[in-house]
Amino acid sequence: MKLKKILSRFQKLHPKEIDLSLDRIKNLCKKLGNPQDKIKAFSIIGTNGKQSTINAIFSILNEAKIQCNVFTSPHIQKINERFIFNNQELNDEELASLFEKVEEVNNNQPITFFEILSACFFYKAAQYPKNINLIEAGLFHRFDATNILKKNLASVLCSISIDHLDWLPKNQQSIEKIIFEKTSTLLNSNIIVAKQNSQKTTKCIKETISKNLSNKFFFNEDFSYTTGENGFFYYEDKFGGLKLPLPNVLGQFQLENISTAIATLRICNMGIKEDNIKNGITKIRNIARLQEIKSGKLKELVKYNRLLLDGSHNEDGARVLNEYLQTLDCNKHVILGMMENKNHKKYISYFKNISSITTIDIPNQPNAISGKKLKEKFNDVPNVHYKESIEEAIKSISLKKNDLLIITGSLYLSGEFLNLN
């Protein structure tokens, strides 16, 4: 209850939920002693794959007994997920104590919710100067609250694609503008560029960072992977090749994220051994990223059928999700809930050979599109239904033997599912 009250106060400090600027966070961090200048950090930037890449780096570093602090957003079930120090989430009491200290220093000055959370992370992270910090950039990056570091170990550019266009001027809603916002202010250190969804995107990234003096490393030029047989895949970079076990996470795109994680750690000379990589990639904790649900109240409703949860919410996320679904020889049923500001028709256009789609409302999210309105957008898609809740939707679908059920469209929906389950 105490933690909820503090968070409620945080949300009232600024009239806008998002207000892209660095002034407020810089002012608060100055009062806190500029903690962001006292840490060793990897900045993880992009549209898709950021959390998966962070989770892979974290898992490998954990195997190497290297202590980490991790800052990600949004959280799926509880805000504690965003605050990992010494490889552990802060508990409610620890988090409330941290928030109260920063709140006192802020002294009711206007600051957005994400900005004050970022300041809280930096303040706590500075207490662990030897730890490695894995910091996920928020919206875009140029004016994102995490972009106040003066130095870092590396900037990791995950897949960049179309999303959050409503935050750009009407005449600048393009992939080129998104790439500029995400990459034009990268620090001079190392830049590791993951596999992108097109050569055009990669070329645009290269042009935008051409004057940046960092060491630059690109997927398929400086590091790569190939899939093998008998449960292995092969990773290769300038340091040599590795024969690695398949990870414990689903989807071809996860091999791309994991390869980027391995490249980052090897390029930055983190002292990682081959066994750390082999063990780390089989112990990755990926919530709501093609997560197979194997137990719980909602899982019981589908009995022996497979149940997957995936928080993909933009067109590139839909693309990689459906690349995975196309590898499965079964009937697929989709339960879908989305936020209002997404390109819903573009998202659903990637779904092929789907037996049914059931749209639902996302509870507790005023910025979500209603399930009824979402269903109306898919009037040219066969076998689309609407149900109010996740539970009603699951019960309404007649699953046959070997059928797959997947719940997707929003990380907020994923959080609601996991809490209900």
Main β sheet profile: 6 strands, parallel
Report how far apart the termini are: 22 Å
Shape: globular
Structural class estimated from helices and strands: alpha/beta
Low-confidence stretches: none
Q: Based on DSSP secondary structure assignment, what is the total number of beta strands?
A: 17
Helix content: 25-40%
How many domain regions?
Answer: 2
CATH superfamily (homologous) name of the largest domain: Mur-like, catalytic domain
- What is the radius of gyration computed over CA atoms, rounded to a whole number of angstroms? 21 Å
> How would you write the strand order of the largest sheet?
2-5-1-6-7-8
Q: What is the CATH architecture term of the largest domain?
A: 3-Layer(aba) Sandwich
Q: Let me know the average pLDDT.
A: 94
- Total number of helical segments? 15
Portion in strands: 15-25%
State the CATH class of the largest domain: Alpha Beta
**CATH-defined topology of the largest domain:** UDP-N-acetylmuramoyl-L-alanine:D-glutamate ligase
